[in-house]
């Protein structure tokens, strides 16, 4: 091959590569643009989504069914033995768990497996669209679980409240008007029912409260208000507590969240090694929190253990 032919070949090759790359880049850009446009359409358009039943194999239980919400912004969950063992370390069989901010039941189901058929899990979810999924999950696995779904939020007084959500189909949200940071970008409003939960428990579950072993709250920044509203419950029955330090809380709100647990003589941990196969263990891996270290991370889960 002559020198001229070599140069011609390289030139044609470079042109071909350029065209291929340009086509790929153009398709990629249009693909990303299309995805972004589609995401905006989904976010701004209301649609009620159903569910599909998934099966998970868990040691000691065999196949467990779970209704997974088909909302496109919902992250599919995985149920495994480690999740169940984690809750077993915090709540013995036959005991009571309260799950506030239940969502689809992704924490409620492994909790219910942990305490068994003789135990009970109360799951609060005020969003009527996701509540239907929780209700379905409460009906599945009847040989192993006892889940009571409750369609309201834990609030100071009984009544109707406005929650804020991130999309028109109400996937993720909460009582965000109660936090100081208004830049939460949850602009879709939904009217929900709220109940004074301490009063509700005293009227309906007074005979089971002595068995309360775990109180979990996940309320998008409203956790401290719920915990303070259940102060008598916590001081009397001293359950283990799980909560969330929401990413948009101010320093003062983070300190208030810490106080809502620590004031009852609890040790407060960052729950950064959440699901361990051997359950909750107080080791060097567990970061003990103080009021001054509540800003150690932007967003994290908390576990508090009574002393």
TrEMBL record:
What PANTHER family does UniProt report for this protein, alphabetically?
A: METHYLTRANSFERASE, FKBM FAMILY PROTEIN, SLL1173 PROTEIN
Cross-referenced InterPro entries:
FkbM_mtfrase, SAM-dependent_MTase, SAM-dependent_MTases_sf
Q: Which CDD domains match?
A: AdoMet_MTases
Locate the Methyltransferase FkbM domain: which residues?
A: 99-266
Question: What name goes with this protein?
Answer: Methyltransferase FkbM domain-containing protein
């Amino acid at each position: 091959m002559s020198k001229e032919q070599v140069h011609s070949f390289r030139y044609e090759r470079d042109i071909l590569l350029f065209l291929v790359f340009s086509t790929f880049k153009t398709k990629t850009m249009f693909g990303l643009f299309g995805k972004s446009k589609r995401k905006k359409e989904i976010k701004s358009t209301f649609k009620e989504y159903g569910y599909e039943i998934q099966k998970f194999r868990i040691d000691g239980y065999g196949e467990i069914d779970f209704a997974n919400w088909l909302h496109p912004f919902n992250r599919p969950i995985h149920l495994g033995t480690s999740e169940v063992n984690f809750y077993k370390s915090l709540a013995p069989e036959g005991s009571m768990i309260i799950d506030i901010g239940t969502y689809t039941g992704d924490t409620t189901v492994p909790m219910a497996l942990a305490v068994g058929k003789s135990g009970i899990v109360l799951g609060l979810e005020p969003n009527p669209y996701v509540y239907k999924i929780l209700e379905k999950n409460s009906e599945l696995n009847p040989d192993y679980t006892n889940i009571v779904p409750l369609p309201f939020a834990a609030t100071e007084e009984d009544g109707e409240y406005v929650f804020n959500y991130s999309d028109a189909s109400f996937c993720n949200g909460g009582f965000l008007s109660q936090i100081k940071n208004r830049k939460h970008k949850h602009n879709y409003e939904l009217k929900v029912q709220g109940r004074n939960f301490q009063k509700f428990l005293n009227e309906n579950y007074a005979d089971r409260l002595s068995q309360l072993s775990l109180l979990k709250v996940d309320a998008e920044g409203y956790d401290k208000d719920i915990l303070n509203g259940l102060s008598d419950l916590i001081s009397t029955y001293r359950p283990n507590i799980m909560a969330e330090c929401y990413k948009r809380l101010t320093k003062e709100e983070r300190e208030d969240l810490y106080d809502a647990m620590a004031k009852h003589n609890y040790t407060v941990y960052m729950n950064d090694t959440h699901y361990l196969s051997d359950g909750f263990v107080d080791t060097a891996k567990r970061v003990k929190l103080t009021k001054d270290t509540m800003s150690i991370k932007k967003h994290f889960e908390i576990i508090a253990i009574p002393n």
